[in-house]
Amino acid sequence: MTKKDFYEILGISKNASDEEIKKAFRQLAHKYHPDKNPDDKNAEERFKEINAAYEVLKDPEKRAQYDRFGYAETGAGFGPGPGFGFDFQDLFGDVFGDFFGATRRRTRGQRGADLRYDLEVTFEEAAFGVEKKIKVPKTAKCQKCHGSGAKPGTSPETCSTCHGRGQVSYQQGFFSISRPCSRCRGEGTVIKELCGECNGAGRVNSVQSLTIKVPAGVEADTRLRLSGEGESGVHGGLPGDLYIVINVQPHPIFQRQDDNIICEVPISFPQATLGCEIDVPTIEGNVKLKIPAGTQSGKVLRLKNKGIASLHTGQRGDHNVIIKVETPTKLTAKQKELLEEFAKISGEETNPIKKNFLEKMKGLFE
Length: 366
What we know:
Elements: H1 6-10, H2 18-32, H3 41-57, H4 60-69, H5 88-99, E1 115-121, H6 123-128, E2 130-141, E3 157-158, E4 167-172, E5 175-180, E6 189-190, E7 203-214, E8 223-226, E9 242-248, E10 254-257, E11 260-268, H7 269-274, E12 276-282, E13 285-291, E14 300-303, E15 319-326, H8 333-345, H9 352-364
Parallel strand pairs: 1-9, 11-15
Antiparallel strand pairs: 2-7, 3-6, 4-5, 8-9, 10-11, 12-13, 14-15
Helix pairs in contact: 2-3
């Protein structure tokens, strides 16, 4: 990882807002994602840079620390040596801890950050479940030094300045003041020979391939948690988790409502009037549906248990067909003549909805 400016990597100014940072990251991550650039090492390295820059700049505390101290002090997991990621809370905790007569060592193990991955599936894949192979860029424990940051064959040595406490104390009047050791930066140990693979960080940037099992019945924005698949921990800390957020592609015909499927099907005026049998699409293929004579536009006909299986109970919803009676827009002379004749001989008995409406309207003006 080259020591490029994080703002330069994302193509934003140092005064960029949180929304501008997020927008720039999404555009670049989409462009250079390993899934979209298979076997392209340059794109993979570019994606790692983008991800690393975003991990720092999206966090107000890390960003402020980066703006003040620069690349080596961000704690992003790829600095030039141990001790980056200085925690000012540790300083104040040590000072006031000693003020009240208590001392403590800095907690070494730090849990890795959680990660989010947006996974897009089709309507049918969400309904029936699917397995997806993905690639997740993240930091992982350096296998060469096993996370110690020290050159293989060596190990971190106890700091001779603080004698492993991570703090140095001095007297100021009646008070004993403790501060993080400047030599080991509060770690208590010093690495004299850095690991050549991770440059002393104990972690390296990697891209991990995973197979995700999407259960049947998932809805949009469902979050799947993969424990321990997030960023690697620091100093023996536990890894974070990976959250898979499901995005379901819209279907050209179907809409989902809870575990039911809604589908609008157009039929002709003669079909609606005389009744018929039509083919209706479902997620399992076409099925026959009987249209009763005199069916009105907007009528809902139910296909029981043809919907989506519940994610929790496994019970399937229904497939609801909304009938849309289509009015012809272009008529031949013969068709027009027949319809005019039909209109002449039609009485109110053939139009019960219209008859009911006229009676209600008449009552308004009496």
